[in-house]
Amino acid sequence: MADARPAGQSTFRSGAFRFALVFAGVFAVAAFLILGMVRHQVGRYAHEAMAGTLKTETATLVAEDRDVLSAEIARRMAAAPNGTFHYLLLDPAGRPLVGTVPVAAARAGWGQVVMREHPPTPTDPERPERLVTLGTRLADGSLLVVATDGYDVDKLGGHMIRFTILWAITITLIALAGGWMAGRVFLTRLGAANAAIERIMAGRIEQRLPMIGLAPELDDLAHNINRMLDRIDGLMEGLRQVSTDVAHDLRTPLTRLRQMLEAAREASGREETDAGIEVALAQADQLLATFRAILRLAQIEGGGRRTPFAPVDLGELLTTLIETYEPVAIDAGHALVATPRADAIVHGDAELLAQLFANLIENAILHTPAGTRVSIGIEHVPGDISVIVSDNGPGVAEAERERITRRFYQVDPSRSSGSSGLGLSIASAIVTLHSARLSIGDAGPGLRIAVSFPDRSGGTAN
Amino acid sequence: MKLLLLEDDEATRTQAVRQLTAAGHVVEACGTGTDAVFLAMQGDYGVLVLDRMVPGLDGLSVLKALRAAGIRTPALLLTAMDGIDDRVEGLEAGADDYLVKPFAAAELIARVNALSRRPPMSDTAVTATIGDLTIDRVKRTVTRAGQRIELQAQEFKLLDYLIQHSGEVVTRTMLLENVWSFHFDPQTNVIESHMSRLRAKIDRGYGKDLIQTVRGAGYRIDG
Questions:
Q1: Statement to judge: residues B111 and B144 lie in one domain
Q2: Do A259 and B105 touch (CB under 8 A)?
Q3: ipTM for the complex shown
Q4: Would the CB atoms of B185 and A307 count as touching at under 8 Å?
């Protein structure tokens, strides 16, 4: 589980958030385009409406009698000094008769001119007005110019642009917030599923994924993973059952065989027969021991245990084991060097942990030549308690290391040393049961096996 | 001594009866749990040997029923399962010992003998003497023929266990379970290595060897 991804993933890196980000971008662009089009259309409409009023105003004036036209214009200007329209009337010679529109705008057809409405004052800064003008040549050659300011249309356009930008920003922010929340929900749900997978990998194979929710396709995924787990479970159970059944079924005839050998030994009383029976008994015992180991392994791997885990002092456990194995090591021509420390408490099954480390120590003694030094120690770093069993023997080639925990695997078949070939398999199963990690490495020279337990004490243990 | 044996497999039952009888016991055997309860309530047995897995009322239930009825006869549970939980369950149900099938005849006999003399007085006493050897369980000292002998902690435990069962055969498995709390098969000669050191300390140089090797069975300490 060393390569398991950290559980606390950032919401901003979640898939949901990235989707939301993309959608926010698309939304913002779309909103921008739509509002841009609306602005364009509204601007055109406003412009047309303005042109319409200019035409209508011009038409009403053209309809007036030429003689009273100047008076009518003056009347209209006086009636609404700040009105919509500005006027200019020029005689056929081009001299202005009446009106406020700058003479620069005096030409027939559409035009534009900038006009200062009044000189600047401290309270009201100079505000040049952009006027749209419509000049009409009258029958007698004089020119009538009617103008109106484009200010409202411009203002509308400005409003629309500001509104568009504001709206694009708002919609982006809303999408981001939504994406962040969706990402959080997503991660929470997926987190539960991930935690379940972690537990399954830690050996609790009866566990299943919770439904993820949010979308039927995600539930389908969880459901399919669960079905896959069921299938794997079934296959594994089948395999385990086969080896367990074989061990179980062969045990009964073997037991009978053993009993008959014992009876034969009692009955014979002849030296040479006795010796033969003795060898046969030893072989039967070896077979029975292997079967016991297989059944033991099946039981540990099955995980169906009822004894609850309790705090186990690894230092104490190892000290006892070292006392136990020191004479064995010396008799086998090995040296046992130990540096256990006191403050290493893990949560586990003391009996199984004793077997685990006994197996590792025996493995080191059995599979190295005489004269080898076997070292046992505890390394305690924050969050991790490791028991290290290493030797300075010939070691195991890197390619082989992964295989040595397999059942019945012998690095050197000619040097099986009478072991069952299940010691490291059982050790590995016990490690898995304790959610610990078994790493097999190089002691340079020799083999280095480390069992790392998660340190749950968090430094607060008394 | 009179024993009660509950075992449903006829071949195993016959074999066990033969072996226990050969070891000098009187054996009454039955094949069902109900019979076993009935017999145990009536008779006066030294040890009950109960197969855990029998059809109907199984050995564990028989034991629970008997313990509930106040029958305190030492009981040895036989089982084909050797899981940790099974053993704990058996001991919690009131079993005094637990033997995993298949077992050697010597193992069964040694266990029955060990149980038949419970509760032993010697393992609660402060000092115990075997021949000219004396151990003090409080001071953790050993003397033989007046001479102090220094023992390692595990050697002392081993000697103590032998003395608690002096005159009886103790098997390797009994030693592993009771001295080292090992409920698995070690692949190395743990017992032999410790035993040879213990013997070198308490027997070498003295006239008589207290610890005897019983071929095909185990060890025995005699005064």
A1: no
A2: yes
A3: 0.83
A4: no
